[in-house]
Amino acid sequence: MAGVVLEVVVSDPRDVPGATDGGADRLHLAVPGPTCGLSPEPSQVSAVCRESDLPVFVLLRLNDSWSTTGGEFARLVGLGEDYLACGAAGVAFGFLDADLEIDTETCMMLLDRLPHVPWTFHRAVDSSLDPRRSWRRLIRLPRLVAVRTAGSPRGMSAGFDDLLATLTPEIAPLAMPGGGLAAEHVPWLLKAGVRQLHLGDQVRPGGSAKAYVDAGYVRSWRSMVDDLLDDVDR
Q1: 20 to 30 Å CA-CA from 107: which of 3, 59, 96, 118?
Q2: pTM of the predicted model, to two decimals?
Q3: What pLDDT, in 10s, does the model give residues 42-69?
């Protein structure tokens, strides 16, 4: 059985060695900010991509909401094109409409402008009106490789049980738990079929965004997850 993809958040080229040496499989690049962060400058993407051969997925988000405007959308398209030209392997984004449903129209418009690009849907799903209905819509979108979710806008301490109940065999491979993920959650998630995990503060000393990603912290997660997966596969 395939292993578990560990996606590690980076915000600076100096985060990359810790993530790479510790055993990360994919990097998520974003500027630290409210909720899920914001889009970085293309120069930052280029600098991070030069530091590692790991796939880098870059956040496309210009405000602290789950929606975008016409002017912002044009900027997002331009940023996406710049990120890919800088070496990014994919992007991360997600939109809700005024009714707090998945804004599939905007997502598809962006995908049409960035053809053939793999992407992840970020934690907007946790703020949608009906997460189960949202998942049914998400799994039909093309080139989607992961959906980052904590089961609740308040994080996994509040949403873990709901997230676990949502993990059907169709949903689990796309689910990428993140947002307060703790070690005690992992065995249950792996048993439910989850094969992607998103790590942010967990791999920074003191859980501080001002600290760089630490290879030892990443390696501890890597070892724990691999050992637990071996137990699940037996």
Answers
A1: 3
A2: 0.95
A3: 999 999 999 999 999 999 999 888 988 8
